[in-house]
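Can't paste images in this forum, so I'm doing it all in text. The chain is below; anyone willing to post the predicted structure tokens underneath?
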Amino acid sequence: MVSSYMRSKAADTQQLLLGLGAAGALAIVALSAVLYTAASKRRRPAYSKAEWLEAVEEIGTIRGFEDIVEEVAKSGIESSIRPEVWPFLLEVFDHASTYQQRQQQHQIMVRQYQQLLLQCQVTTCTVVPGCVRHCHGNSPSGAVTASCHPHPCRVLHGACVS
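Text version of the structure:
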């Protein structure tokens, strides 16, 4: 009696699943179509070079920059103009600056970078186990000053000892 009951339940379940299977498959196809349509409507083409060139005025200022930022946030940037657009997005350059102002600012930044490189050549830091860092200047003795050696240990020939 139990086995016939189980067979009856299994048959009922199988019929139910087959019925739901067809309806479920149809629902899945319909849902996929709706999602695909919604996704394709959201997906905009990336901000293009033509749009960028249209926004850059003759003297180099960027017209409608706030709108450009919104558009880029929604759709991205065409890869060919990323090197030109990103300095504005990162506020390295002001969108109201002219070509000449940006060129002057770039020269200043290059000089600052070169000065930093010179400072790095003068002072080298190495990490030593047990210490935060060792900084060795280009002095004849290679002495480490307290200002560049913040760890309270003693320095002996480039190693920390207690």
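DSSP finds five helices and four strands in the chain. Helices lie at 2-42, 49-55, 65-75, 82-89, 99-122.
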